[in-house]
Specification:
The complex is a heterodimer. Chain A has 15 helices and 8 strands. By secondary structure, chain A is of the alpha+beta class. The radius of gyration of chain B is 24 Å and the shape is globular. Classes of the chains: A alpha+beta, B mainly alpha.
Chain lengths: ~375, ~375
């Protein structure tokens, strides 16, 4: 338990209170638990507790065949499933030195960017709820529902798609995909704009989030923050630009960065990323070639050559890394995931120092964690 | 003979009191049911959804279904709670909410007991409700409850002051605290035209009094998970819920009576005018709930003591000047609007302090999106995608 310092109020009789938040608190975004040490409404210290959703994913991976692991990656960051599938498939492809068909790469990029929008829309909804506004949730979830309907048409599942395969995709897109996405995109850009307008420049929202949870770029790097949390500090780092994977080097898009590194900047960066993702999707649709979507590998059992590989990609929450060790069998010898949520969460203790109790939920919301990924 | 007649009189009195209290209870219950339905529907429309549709036509039976569900739920008594306080707290809250309505007239004659010191009585009972909230938080032996209870004490006491100050100013204008006299004295000119500042202060402080968004801090579900109500369930929770809606309706009703002329209005009967005005104000409350996030406790207290209280004192001072020199009514309007303008400007400057930095970002954002649209058009991209 945290040490209670007795020198804070030498004069009066006030005592600190230990407030247990979670794992069943409505705004800890799942089963996260933090023990706040508070003095009135001020937070003196915080002790985060994780592990309530621990399933031992990395260990389970060692007992599964390579194709079976894709479905385990769906369950890490369960609001950005396609992005997780992509990074795992890329790791195995790199290990086997496989070339993925052009069309499959473009489909992957379109689905991943749609999933990024869906994930950020979820974020806009939850930060609204954390700050006490209920309408952004409704606006944002409408757009998310549209994306998920498209995902269902493509992969057969709204979440946990299991659609990417090592060397390509499970199958080609449905015949009317072109028409569906052309109908979806204008509606989606309307939804994004609507959920952006209702909250981003709201005076109360700005006063709740501006200068709250400040962190400098240097400190953010020290804590290992990535994704919008790092870009909110004004440091331009995006794996899609810094180390382009898949076909990301063929699209023109910008990396939005914030100014001060507070909750509002992190929010703004995420909102801007949605617009950028829309851009990427439009370009990818224009460039998408015809052709096969599966590699010569087919559906055979695979045994990658012995060796190790580390692959990283830009998830909605930050940089995800997969370290894969193979010994030439049909199962990986070791698989380690660098989850962005877990690393971003490490700054929580620093961010919550001297914050208000009400800020704790906003700061946690602005880190945008998914517990499936934190606990694995 | 004498005692017999006295007994008869008092029996009639007792009968009258009981009957009118029953009428009050039934009437307010109907009002609360209508408010629950209205809030769910209004919020639904604001959020582009339908709201309840399955229970009766337009979901009209939804509040009844809600109430039934709450009443037949198990009423849990936390083992660590202070039982007496835990039971008595909801009673204090709901009784004070009901007692306010004893003296609020819905029209010239539709009132249970008109008091000459009606406004004094109302503010006194409004303060009493705070006690119930603090006790509820304390009695439930829950840290969130205690935190919420203390928040409610700080918040409600701070906002009680501007409410009372504005009430005093209106009392000075009407030279009475009798609500019927106050409404009658608004006959040529409504007080909203005379004292617009008063209505603004009263309405904002009233929102804080009943804990509606953006001042729903003491029961903020994302922070203190319902605050004083966290351990309550079933019928006891329903009682708090009832009191909250009655109080919301009372604040709207008082704003309508003090500033919008209550039942005054052409053509329609008085009660209809009264209900129209009150429901319009209640809809504004719901609208605010559908639009704004919640303030933080320090921002809330700063707003109370640095803005609302000085403004309320200013209201009293200008009212006194106006009465003393016997100027025409529009002079007070001007002074009131002047105060509102000055404070509004200062608040705007202060609130937009961080927003000025934000504006820089916003300009950049707009520039970028304009470029994006132009680039999209140049590529002949998908129509309608921004």
């Amino acid at each position: 338990m945290v040490e209670v310092s007795s020198t804070i109020h030498p004069d009066d009789q006030s005592v600190e209170l230990l407030l247990n938040m979670g794992p069943q608190h409505p705004s800890t975004h799942g089963v996260f638990r933090m023990v706040l040490q508070i003095d009135g409404e001020k937070i003196l210290d915080v002790e985060p507790h994780i592990g309530y959703l621990h399933r031992g994913s990395e260990k389970i991976c060692e007992g599964e065949q390579y194709h079976q692991i894709i479905t385990l990656f769906d369950r890490l960051d369960y609001v950005a499933n396609f992005n997780n599938e992509l990074v795992y498939c890329q790791a195995v492809e790199k290990l086997m030195d496989l070339t993925v068909p052009e069309r499959a790469e473009y489909v992957r990029v379109i689905l991943c960017e749609l999933n990024r929008i869906a994930s950020h829309l979820l974020y806009v909804g939850t930060i609204g709820l954390d700050a006490g506004a209920m309408t952004p949730t409704m606006f944002a979830f409408r757009g998310r529902e549209r994306i998920q309907a498209l995902f269902e048409a493509v992969s057969g599942a709204r979440m946990m798609h299991n659609y990417f395969r090592i060397g390509g995709l499970k199958e080609d897109l449905p015949d009317n995909f072109e028409q569906m996405i052309r109908e979806l995109l204008p509606l989606l850009s309307e939804d994004i704009e609507e959920s952006d307008k209702i909250i981003t420049f709201n005076e109360i929202f700005i006063s709740r989030t501006k200068d709250v949870g400040l962190i400098s770029a240097e400190e953010a790097i020290d804590y290992g923050l990535t994704g919008p949390c790092l870009r909110g500090c004004g440091y331009e780092y995006d794996v899609r630009k810094a180390e382009p994977y898949s076909v990301y080097d063929r699209f023109a898009f910008e990396v939005p960065v914030g100014l001060d590194g507070d909750c509002w900047d992190r929010h703004w960066v995420r909102v801007q990323e949605m617009y950028q993702s829309m851009d990427i999707i439009v370009q990818a649709l224009e460039q998408m070639p015809e052709g096969p979507v599966t590699s010569s590998l087919g559906r055979r059992l695979i045994r990658p050559p012995a060796g190790e590989v580390y692959v990283r990609a830009e998830n909605p929450r930050g940089e995800i890394g997969v370290y894969l060790v193979s010994q030439g069998t049909d199962r990986p010898y070791r698989l380690k995931v660098r989850p962005p949520s877990f690393c971003n969460l490490s700054a929580l203790k620093r961010l919550l120092k001297d914050a208000w109790v009400a800020d704790s939920v906003v700061i946690l919301g602005s880190l945008d964690i998914v517990l499936g990924e934190v606990d694995r | 003979m004498f005692t017999a007649s006295l007994l008869a009189v008092s029996l009639i009195d007792v009968g009258w009191i009981l009957a009118s209290l029953l009428a009050l209870f039934v009437g307010l219950s109907i009002v609360v049911l209508s408010l629950v339905w209205l809030e769910r529907k209004a919020l639904g429309r604001l959020q582009r959804r339908l709201g309840p549709t399955r229970t009766g036509p337009m979901g009209l039976m939804q509040p009844i279904a809600d109430a039934l569900k709450l009443v037949i739920k198990e009423d849990i008594l936390p083992s660590a709670s202070d039982k007496a306080i835990f039971w008595v707290a909801p009673v204090i809250v709901v009784v004070s909410a009901f007692m306010i309505w004893v003296t609020i007239p819905a029209s010239q004659d539709l009132v249970i007991k008109n008091l000459e010191l009606g406004l004094f009585y109302i503010t006194a009972f409004a303060v009493l409700g705070i006690l119930g909230l603090v006790l509820a938080g304390w009695g439930s032996a829950n840290k969130y409850g205690v935190l919420g209870g203390l928040r409610s004490a700080a918040q409600l006491i701070s906002y009680e002051i501007p409410v009372i100050m504005v009430v005093v100013a209106v009392g000075m204008l009407a030279q009475s605290l009798d609500l019927r006299v106050i409404v009658a004295s608004q006959n040529p000119v409504l007080y909203v035209a005379v004292l617009p500042l008063g209505l603004v202060i009263f309405f904002i402080a009233g929102l804080a009094e009943v804990g509606r968004t953006p001042f729903d801090i003491y029961h903020a579900e994302s922070e203190v998970v319902g605050g004083p109500f966290v351990e309550y369930s079933g019928a006891h929770w329903a009682v708090f819920f009832l009191a909250e809606y009655i109080n919301t309706f009372a604040i709207a009703a008082l704003a309508a009576l003090l500033f919008l002329g209550g039942w005054l209005g052409p053509f329609l009967p008085g009660v209809v005018w009264f209900l129209l005005k009150v429901y319009a104000l209640v809809l504004v409350v719901f609208w605010i709930r559908g639009t704004f996030p919640r303030l933080r406790i320090d921002q809330l207290m700063a707003f109370a003591w640095k803005v609302m209280v000085p403004l309320a004192f200013y209201t009293i001072v200008i009212t006194a000047i106006y009465l003393f020199y016997d100027w025409p009514f529009w002079s007070l309007t001007l002074m009131s609007l002047g105060g509102l303008g000055v404070v509004g400007y200062l608040l705007y400057r202060r609130l937009t302090g961080p927003a000025r930095r934000v504006a820089e970002v916003k300009a950049r954002q707009e520039q970028q999106s304009a470029q994006r649209r132009a680039a999209n058009r140049a590529r002949g991209g998908l129509a309608g995608v921004k």
